[in-house]
Amino acid sequence: MRAYARFITDRAWSRAGAIAAVLAAGVPRRVLAFGTRLALLVLGSVGIAVAVALMLWNDFGPGPLDVFIGAIRVRTGLPLSLAVWTTVGLLTAIAWFLGRRPGPGTVAAPLIIGPVMQAGVALLDHFDRPTGLIAHLVVQFLAIGIIGLGAGAVIVSGLGAGTGELLAAAASDRTGRPEPLVRLAFESAWLVLGIVLGGPIGLGTVIVTISIGPAVARGYRWVDAAAAHSRRNLAISGR
Predict the structure, then answer these.
(1) In which residue ranges of the chain is pLDDT below 50?
(2) Distance from the first to the final alpha carbon of the chain
(3) What are the structural domain ranges in the chain?
(4) Are 97 and 129 in contact (CB under 8 A)?
(5) Each residue of 60-91: pLDDT tens digit?
């Protein structure tokens, strides 16, 4: 069971799961000024929103949670930002009810991501969608790379867990089940419900499933290294 849980952790099924996988690995936390942490949170959230907008425009298949959010839009006719806020807000409320208090970043990130994602989709819709497998793959991997950097910035900011990992941790506390398996159950449920309700799914969803964990881990390392480099330069210039 322990080996299986490790297998699931290493193969996170969404950006939330990938963030949780990086956090579970015991990554070092750097002490940053609050303004820097806030800037990282905002930039990371904007990056994630732009990347998901690219995936939706690419029409090749987003990650599991975005499949579910897309299904909510199909069924309710809500604007994208409201669909994001409704879904993430409900999941955050459930996690809080189960005993895990959200951090300021948990609340702020969706407020940024929703409108930016909606604006990004509206802007990209003015351009022709990619045609051909190679073009779809290039856009999909570009979006995954941007999500990795954005999620890395959110992790380094240290201002609060993402909604997905917060809910998984809360459910794990209540059930006693390993958090990776609980997260897998939630993300599987989002994917299945999204498919049943008519959410956007495709080969790109499989690619996100396989690639997002390594992308977030790499993005975290790059952002963390950049933050460390900036701190060293500031310390030198301050002397």
Answers:
(1) 1-11, 13, 24, 26-27
(2) 53
(3) 2-238
(4) no
(5) 998 888 899 989 988 999 898 999 999 989 99
Nearest to 96 by CA among 156, 32, 160, 152: 160
Cα-Cα-Cα-Cα dihedral of 191, 197, 203, 204, to 10°? -70
Is the C-alpha dihedral spanning 233, 235, 237, 239 positive or negative? negative
Determine contact, residues 181/5, Cβ cutoff 8 Å: yes
Helix residue ranges per DSSP H, 126-202: 133-157, 163-175, 179-196
Q: How many of the other CB atoms lie within 10 Å of CB of 196?
A: 10
How far is C-alpha 8 from the geometric centre of its chain's CA atoms?
17
- What Cα–Cα distance (Å) separates residue 143 from each residue in 49, 81, 90? 10, 19, 26
pTM score: 0.79
Distance, CA of 106 to CA of 13 (rounded, Å)? 19
* Cα–Cα distance measured from residue 151 to residue 20, given in angstroms and rounded to the nearest whole number: 10
b/e sequence 39-76, b meaning 16+ C-beta within 10 Å: ebbbbbbbbbbbbbbbbbbbebbbbbbbbbbbbbbeee
Model confidence over 27-50: pLDDT tens digits? Answer: 455 556 788 889 999 999 999 999
27: left (phi over 0), alpha (psi -120 to 50) or beta: beta
